[in-house]
Amino acid sequence: MRKTLAQHDVLFLPTRSENFGHVIHEALSVGVPVLISDQTPWSDLEANGAGWNIALDASSEFVRAIEAASRILPEQREAFAFRAMAYAATRADRQASIERMHALFRGLLPR
Asked: Which of 8, 14, 19 is nearest to 61 (CA)?
């Protein structure tokens, strides 16, 4: 799957809901920016230069992002891919993920 994803310019996934979005992480990890809805935990893509997350009812914003993606020059693609991979790596930080999960469970415990 990673080899197939790496052959594409953008992953377009305007999903209604994702609890994580493994395919999103896979695309980012091979340097493919993503264009997704705002209904995923991947909420800071533009700030990290790794893609776009847009409200489902904002069709004009999806058009804007598709047009922006189509204008990425080959020499800019490498920098975009690097930012996508770096962003995926930070999200895959195992120790940080474990600590976030522990904090979540601690918050669920009665006090």
From this structure: 14
In CATH, what number is assigned to the domain containing residue 83? 3.40.50.2000
- Structural domain including 102 reads 2-108
Q: Work out how many domains the chain is built from and give that number.
A: 1
32 close to 6: Cβ distance less than 8 angstroms = yes
Q: Are 89 and 96 in contact (CB under 8 A)?
A: no
pTM to 2 decimal places: 0.78
pLDDT grade, residue 94 (50/70/90)? low
Q: Return all residues near 65 (Cβ < 8 A) that are at least 6 apart.
A: 35, 52, 54
